[in-house]
Design brief:
single chain; 526 residues; mainly alpha; globular; binds protoporphyrin IX containing FE; binds copper (II) ion; transmembrane; Cytochrome c oxidase subunit 1; heme; metal-binding
């Protein structure tokens, strides 16, 4: 390129494209953060509608609304989309908005790769959702993709494998960006141990993603070659072993459940100190606890496999290693409570969600410990107890932290305050609804009701009816959330720079809304 043309390019630098092209070509971390969050919001309503269809079918025993195979498609797609389309993209959205703002960096380290990492997701999303219209319908073998079902299914299974590859690629690119940004682009003086805890939790999460996404990719590639190219990795008739899939899958998927919760710990660790008006209790122990959880997450995978048959020594190993995770997790819960202890607390919507997180996530943690006991798990495996357990950690854990984070940072992002009345209404309906859906599922599981089943024995009717009513309360109260978000984007009381009286950190030193470009000269942190 000639010098003149180069100069011309430099000149054109400020003419940003508008409309659709702006969003397609954007390399700005704030734009990309918003894209991730909108994508997650849309997918939340998609996967949420599937949950309501499932719960509607389960309102009564017998088959009312749908064919059993379609029920299985809904369950599988609900799980896949909630995990890969809602929780993970929402956390990436927070990372994109907040990591540069918290570190005093002008943007992410690799802005163009950042654009790619996002735009791969809608492609995968369309492939997953579109597969409902393919011959044979969407995948129906459960989000865990176990063979032999996943080897026998139709064309949507191949498409889902491709979609999983694409989403994994997106996560790896996002993680490389986050790690590089955090390690290299912190403002002068902002040492690692001074960094906001949200950045720490995402740094560790990004390493987990880079370590485990290739394992998932390997597992689904073996499914693909078993399906199409005559290999027998998981086919016993050809000398393969279907249980091997479970080992590989859970070696990915147990760290994955921490990928779904560590950034939540980070958000809650930002919100609680703000509204308790005290610094986070035990900052360093929080960092070490997060790292310990991440390391331990690699040695516990077979607690998902107690019923496939394993030597007693193996059962003991996976049982005790799993229980060990309760130690660093307990440290975290202790630190959050100690931060609130004798604080001057106020209860704005982000704080309400954060407190609900601490209480209800802990219920999910405890039911996890119950499931970790090998003899108990043999009874409870594949019952509604498991469904209750993971929804306490995913809904009142991951999802509630996302709500807390949105209410907390939305004024910074949009420049407007949200309506506290609507926020609190959303909070109370969500907490009440969530417990009505999922608490009775513990009893259903203890009584032996299997999961992933469209019909059930008569004695399970009452608790199922209660759960379905709760699901519709929870589901429809999310329309309030949608209203709050859209209203806040459009207008509302002007937000101050600091927004919350007790807020600390670099993001609160820039104006609200945060300008398109921030920290072009790095701030100095003392
Ligand atoms: C309105 C809120 C929700 C309701 C009413 C709901 C309901 C359900 C129901 C009824 C099932 C099927 C259980 C079975 O038959 O095994 C299910 C499965 C599942 N849900 Fe949810 N859910 C909700 C939110 C979420 C969220 C936020 C996540 C977050 C990641 C999530 C993750 C999953 C997963 C992973 C499965 C397992 C899918 C499978 O068995 O393959 N759910 N949910
Ligand atoms: Cu696990």
């Amino acid at each position: 390129m000639s010098d003149a043309a180069h100069a011309h390019d430099e000149h054109g630098h400020h003419a940003h494209p508008t409309g659709l092209m702006r969003w397609l070509t954007t390399t700005n971390h704030k734009d990309i953060g918003s894209l991730y969050l909108f994508f997650a919001l849309i997918m939340l309503f998609m996967a949420g509608s599937m949950a309501l269809l499932i719960r509607a079918e389960l309102f009564k025993p017998g088959l009312q609304l749908m064919h059993p195979d379609f029920f299985n498609q809904l369950t599988t797609m609900h799980g896949l989309i909630m995990i890969f389309g809602v929780i993970m993209p929402a956390f990436s959205g927070f990372a994109n908005w907040q990591v540069p703002l918290m570190l005093g960096a002008p943007d992410m380290a690799f802005p163009r790769m950042n654009n790619w990492a996002f735009w791969l997701l809608p492609v995968a999303g369309v492939m997953l959702l579109g597969s409902f219209w393919l011959p044979g319908g969407a995948v129906a073998g459960g989000w865990t993709m176990y063979p032999p079902l996943f080897i026998q299914g139709g064309v949507s299974y191949d498409l889902t494998i491709l979609a999983v590859h694409i989403m994994g690629l997106s996560s790896i690119m996002g993680s490389i960006n986050i790690i590089t940004t955090i390690l290299n682009m912190r403002a002068p003086g902002l040492t690692l141990m001074k960094m906001p805890l949200f950045c720490w939790t995402w740094l560790i999460t990004a390493y987990l993603l880079i370590a485990t996404m290739p394992v998932l990719a390997g597992a689904v590639t073996m499914l693909l070659t078993d399906r199409n190219f005559g290999t027998h990795f998981f086919n016993a008739a050809g000398g393969g072993d279907p249980v091997m899939f479970q080992h590989i899958f859970w070696f990915f998927a147990h760290p994955e459940v921490y990928i779904l919760i560590l950034p939540a710990f980070g958000i809650v660790s930002q919100v609680i100190p703000t509204f308790a008006r005290k610094p986070l209790f035990g900052y360093a122990s929080m960092v070490y606890a997060t790292a310990s959880i991440a390391i331990l997450s690699f040695i516990v995978w077979a607690h998902h496999m107690f019923t496939v048959g394993m030597p007693v020594a193996g059962q003991l190993f996976f049982m005790f290693s799993t229980m060990l995770i309760a130690v660093p997790t307990g440290v975290k819960v202790f630190n959050w409570v100690a931060t609130m202890w004798k604080g001057s607390m106020t209860f704005e919507t982000p704080m309400l969600f954060a407190i609900a997180f601490v209480c209800l996530f802990t219920i999910g943690g405890f039911s996890g410990l119950v499931l970790a006991m090998a003899p108990v798990d043999i009874q409870l495996q594949d019952t509604y107890y498991v469904v209750a357990h993971f929804h306490y950690v995913l809904v009142s854990g991951a999802l509630f932290s996302i709500f807390a984070g949105i209410y907390y940072w939305l004024p910074k992002w949009t420049g407007h305050m949200y309506s506290e009345t609507l926020g609190k209404t959303h909070f109370w309906l969500s907490v009440i609804g969530m417990n009505i859906v999922f608490f009775p599922m513990h009893f259903l599981g203890l009584a032996g009701m299997p999961r992933r089943i469209p019909d059930y024995a008569l004695q399970f009717t009452e608790f199922n009816q209660i759960a379905t009513v709760g699901a519709f309360i929870f589901g429809f109260s999310q329309l309030i959330f949608l209203t709050v978000v859209l209203k806040t984007i459009k207008g509302g009381a002007k937000a101050s720079d600091r927004v919350w009286e007790g807020a600390e950190g670099l993001e609160w030193t820039v104006p609200s809304p945060a300008p398109y470009h921030t920290f072009e000269t790095a701030p100095v942190v003392k």
